[in-house]
Amino acid sequence: MPTKQQCFRGSNGALFDLHFILAFATLKPMLDQKNLDELKTALLKERDLLIKELETIATPDTNLEGDWDIKHKEWGEDQITSEEELEGGESVNESDEDMKNKALSDRLELRLKEVNDALKRMDDGTYGTCEVCQKEIPADRLKANPAAKTDIEHVKEIYAG
């Protein structure tokens, strides 16, 4: 029997066990086909957007699937080239813009991989299952991030590093 501190009265005067309420509140709604279709549409739209963004700063690497090579800015005569040195003896390999584009390209590539992986999981029937604990990922999490591969409790285990 729950203790008095573990119970409360509802507006109708009924006595509720706090543990039961907490367990009920954590139930995860199942994804139905309509939700899956909506999530797949969102993933496909995001994939198209990511590819368009990548195409503005990079080109697909023909030797490595999923990798993109940044489009280098043309060097002008007044810019430091890779053969010249900065103060302190450091060589310049890339322009500031190239470095920014590389960082952006890396982030876009990573997200594109996450989206493509989610689409593959949809095809093989494992979408919506946490890769760590094998439990269903809550629908709200998938709606917030359709490419999620873990529940919130296990995010750090996948992305730590």
From TrEMBL:
Naturally occurring in which organism (per UniProt): Candidatus Azambacteria bacterium RIFOXYD1_FULL_42_11
Any coiled-coil ranges, and where?
Answer: none
Q: Which InterPro entries match?
A: Znf_DskA_TraR
Q: Which UniProt keywords apply?
A: Metal-binding, Zinc, Zinc-finger
**Name of the protein in question:** Zinc finger DksA/TraR C4-type domain-containing protein
Tell me where in this chain the Zinc finger DksA/TraR C4-type domain is found. 125-149
Biased amino acid composition, Acidic residues: 80-97
Q: Which is one GO molecular function term here? A: zinc ion binding
List the residue ranges of the region (Disordered). 75-100
Superkingdom, according to UniProt? Bacteria
Q: Which PANTHER family match?
A: GENERAL STRESS PROTEIN 16O, RNA POLYMERASE-BINDING TRANSCRIPTION FACTOR DKSA-RELATED
